[in-house]
From TrEMBL:
Molecular function as annotated in GO: peroxiredoxin activity
Gene3D superfamilies xrefs: AhpD-like
Occurrences of domain Carboxymuconolactone decarboxylase-like (ranges): 33-117
Coiled coil: none
Protein name stated in the entry: Carboxymuconolactone decarboxylase-like domain-containing protein
Length: 125
């Protein structure tokens, strides 16, 4: 593997989130550039680049976790977009959100649906 963790992470982030992911990293440049680098290197260069799960599955797992957390709306919106970008369907995402109602409660699921609605409106118009 000749690519650095940073280069590998940037490529994976672009594959999943396109410009949206890079915008998140860019928003950290002036105040916490190291945090942006850690996200790229560890999150995307190491974890998202591991074998064993495809990107669609990784994004669906991330959406489930963020819905269950209930406190990460901006990150949820980025990963909802990412899940759609790598082949997840709206129906699959809705089922993930409904599943999280069982474990995280209806408020978390309702917030997840609201985030999905916003993402879909942005994508379609």
């Amino acid at each position: 593997m000749n690519q650095s963790r940073f280069e590998r992470g940037k490529a994976r982030l672009a594959e999943i989130d396109g410009e949206a992911g890079q915008a998140v990293i860019a928003s950290l440049t002036d105040i916490a550039p190291d945090l942006g680098r850690y996200i790229i290197e560890f999150g995307f260069g190491d974890i998202y680049s591991r074998p064993g799960l495809d990107l669609r599955t990784r994004e669906l797992a991330t959406v489930a976790a963020l819905v269950a957390l209930g406190t990460a709306r901006p990150q949820l919106e980025v990963h909802l977009q990412g899940a759609l970008n790598v082949g997840a369907t709206q129906e699959e995402i809705v089922e993930i959100i409904i599943q999280m109602a069982l474990y995280a409660g209806f408020p978390a699921a309702l917030n997840g649906v609201a985030a999905l609605r916003k993402v879909l409106e942005t994508r379609h118009g």
